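Lecture notes, structural biology module. Today: joint structure prediction for complexes of two components.
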Amino acid sequence: MASNTEQMSARRHDNYILQAWLCITLALFFGALLAGVQAALGPVIAENKINETKEKVPELVFGADAAVDSAGRPALEITPSTIRTDHAGGTRFYSVFEARFADGTPAGWVTKASGQGYADRIELLVGLTPDADRISGLYILDQKETPGLGNKIVEVSWRNQFIRKPTDQPLKVVKRGARAPEEIDAVSGATISSDSVVAIVNRVVSDMKTHLAQGPLENKE
Amino acid sequence: MAEQPTATERFVQGILPENPVYRQLLGLCPALAVTSSMQAAVTMAGAVLFVLLCANVVTSLIRDLLKPHLRIVIFTLTIATFVTIADRFLAAYLYQMSKTLGPYIPLIIVNCLIICRCEVCASKQSPLTAAADAVGQSLGYGLALASIAGVREILGTGMFFGLRVLPPSWPDWAVMVLPPGAFISLGLLLGGVNWYSQRNAKKN
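The predicted structure, tokenised, for the full assembly:
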């Protein structure tokens, strides 16, 4: 009898599942809790992001300086829509905000795009003039680049380089002293983060140009 | 086993005698990284209070079920859950602050202060004592963050909680809100606290 009990307790000791029962139960419980939190807060967070995007549209259309004096700024009507662009590599979808003045004349486009950065995905907004021949603004919505180096891509002084850049050729990152119109200064110590942003911007520009050339946006809202 | 401190003792110890930053030198990464303004420091301290309180109480409730070799896994699981809740909550209701704090809220998971309190107090004592310990330690942590942030914000921008306190002629010491300012402030404050407590010890 005694050896039987010992055997059983030895078997119980060797059983990983029994050993970890508390861990497994807690993991399931916490998982359910987090799912509940996400279900409750997810829509609020998504709405925060959309509101942030909408608030940024005027600044991205007029440039940072114009957005500062909000008093003298003409009212904009902002229409969100989704566009798709087809490529050899597949199809891409963009959230596009079309800004028009009150009298209906187009003010510009703000496109939301994302791509791989150095640490994680970078999500940003690109502002373009109505016929997409110049960039009118850049804003970083979400990034997790290295604090102190790569996360300087969010700073106004770096982003302002993009304003009024012509879009007839793709932008290029240079290490120091951008001179030519298509050149962008890298954030020092963060070439990959700078490259990532420029690559996303270039992709948006070329896709939006293709799309605009194909005709007016079909509004899916 | 030595007598464990009572709930009141735990609470009082956390604030100054065993202050997480100045006495235990724990949780220094956020103490350096998010103390460039008072608002960020206070939000951070609030998030730590929430996570530490929940993690301590849960750990204390299950303390008799813990197996020694699996306890760290369970501490981490518990802490990670509450950190995620805090992070989502900030993103939903304090969106701009959540962007300012960025990765430092998720990084509370690896803040040694919390796992230290689970190990030292909550896994051995009752939920009430664990809760008192969590509140005391978080207050101590909040005080420490606020002292560093106060020095940095006032000297670096002439403002306190975003309100101007120094005359506009004050030349803002930009270095204080940059990373070196964090090290300088923490070092000097830490030196001050050590000097003060040594002087007191000699008197007694």
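Point to remember: Chain A is about 40% helix and 25% strand.
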